[in-house]
Amino acid sequence: MIRKAELGDAEALAALSGQLGYPATAALMRERLALILPSADHAVFVAEVQGRVVAWTHVLKVLHLESGLCAEIAGLVVDEAHRSEGLGAELVRRAIDWTRSQGLAVLQVRSRAERLRTHQFYLRLGFAQTKVQHLFELRVPD
Q1: Is residue 138 assigned to a domain?
Q2: Which of 40, 45, 53, 59 has the most CB atoms less than 10 A away?
């Protein structure tokens, strides 16, 4: 079953984020969800199997000065024990539906270069690779 995320899902979402390579505590995830869930510019969907959250996706509106408004899948993770069961594809379909409901024509997703299986997943779902880029990050001191 796919549904919208709730604050009570924080612990499960945090555990799954760790599988994606982004460890988070339940408290930190709860804080983030408290900011994201009320926003009309974001949506978080979860997949449940036997009443347990085993996957999630976060989609949001992004406005770029140079290219305009689009939607972006900011994260998608399926529990290792439930991969290749169609849950990821169903979550992407929900993200596509949300994108359409927002009046947007483009849905983007970024994926790390080493995640080749993930790239194939998105290609199978109809996404096209449009560019290769590098991410530069700067930790801004207090």
Answers
A1: no
A2: 59
pLDDT tens by residue, 96-110? 999 999 999 999 999
Q: Is the per-residue pLDDT at 29 higher than 90?
A: yes
Integer angstrom CA distances of residue 136 from 21, 133, 139? 18, 10, 10
Dihedral of the alpha carbons of 112, 115, 116, 117, in degrees to the nearest 10: -130
Q: Residue 40 falls within a domain, yes or no?
A: yes
Structural domain containing residue 65:
2-124
Split at pLDDT 50, 70, 90, the class of 20 is: confident
Helix (H, G, I), strand (E, B) or coil at 1: coil
Tokens representing residue 39 in the block:
């926003």
What is the spatial distance between Cα 42 and Cα 54, in angstroms, rounded to a whole number?
A: 20
